[in-house]
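Researcher: We're teaching a course module on how sequence relates to structure. For the next exercise, students receive a sequence and then see the predicted structure as C-alpha cells, so they can try to spot secondary structure elements on their own. Here is the exercise chain.
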Amino acid sequence: MIIDLRSDTVTKPTAEMRRAMAEAEVGDDVYQEDPTVNQLEQRAAEIFGKQDALFVPTGTMGNTIGIKIHTEHGQEVICEARSHVFNYELAMMAWFTGCLARPIATEHGQMRWEQIRHEIRSLSPHWAPTGLIALENTHNMGGGTVYPIEWINEICDGAHERKLKVHMDGARVFNAAVALGKPVREICAKVDSVMFCLSKGLGAPVGSLLVGSKQDIARARLYRKRLGGGMRQAGVLAAAGLIALEIMPSRLEEDHAHARLLAEGLAELPGVKVDLSSVQTNIVIFDVSATGRSAAELSAEFKAQGVLINPISETHLRIVTHYDVNRDGCNKALSVIRKVVAPVMA
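Model: And here is the predicted structure for the students to work with:
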C-alpha cells in the first residue's frame, strides 16, 4: 500500500461526495443557472461573512482574480517571500494582473504591519505604487503556520487607512480556523477578499472559491471567463464542494494531530531537524542536511518503500497529512523514514 504524504491535494472524494455528484441538480453556470453552484456560492459567502462568492476551478485562478480585482497594471503587491502567489503560480501576478511582487522575508511566513508599512510606496515618477497586500493563511512553505487574528486585523486596519485592499490566500484557512478555535468569518472579517480551496484538506475533487463584496465578485466573474473558467453544468463539482464545506472542516483536527505525531517522531531521528513550534496544522517541513544525503535522494528511498514525500529544496522535505492517511498509516510512514535514515547516520 502506498502512503501518500506529498500533499492534501491527493485526497479522493468520499462516498458521500460521489453520490452527491451523481445526483446533483445542474444548469448552465455561465448564465448563473446552476442551482448547486449557486447554493455553494451562497453558503461560502455566509460562512465567511462576505456579500458574495465565486466558484472557480483552482486556487491559482482564485488568487489571480483576487489580485486583479484590487489592482491596476503597473502596481506592486506586497507579499511574503515564500508565498504561493509569488512562487508557485507561474507568475500570474505579472502575466495577467500586470503587477510586480514586493516580497518581505519572514521566519515562519507571517508578515507584521511594522514590516509592511515600510514597503508601501506611493505614486512616484521613480517606482511602482503599492496596489495590494496579500497574506497567506495557513502559510504553505512556512510549514502550515497560522496568522494570529490580531496581526491580520492590524494589517487590514493599516492598509485601509492608506486606501489599500488586503487579499488572503486562504487555501487552507479552515486549518487555521481549527488551530485557532475560531470561525473563518472572524479570521477573515477585515480582509477584502479570500480565496479558499475545497480540494485540499476538505477533500473535494475540484474547486476553490473567492469571497468578497458583491461589486468585486461581479468583476471577478468576468475575469474568470477571460481565464477560461466559465464552466457549464458545474453543479456536479459543486455538489462535492458543498459536502467539503459543510462536513469536512470538523475532521481537520485529526490531520493536525497526525502532523504532530510525525513531527515529534522525526525530531527524535539523528540528522533530522524539525522546528516543532512551526507545526501548527497539517504540514511538517524537516531538514535532512545533517544526514549527508540530499532531500531528493531520501525521497527516492522513501518512495521505494511505499511512502511518498516531496523534497522542497536540496535539504528539506515536506509532509502534508490528510484524511486518506490514518494514524496507522502515519506510524508506518514514520517507521519507513526511520529505517531509511538510521543506516545513513550509523
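Model: If you want an answer key for the exercise: The mean pLDDT is 96. The longest helix spans residues 327-345.
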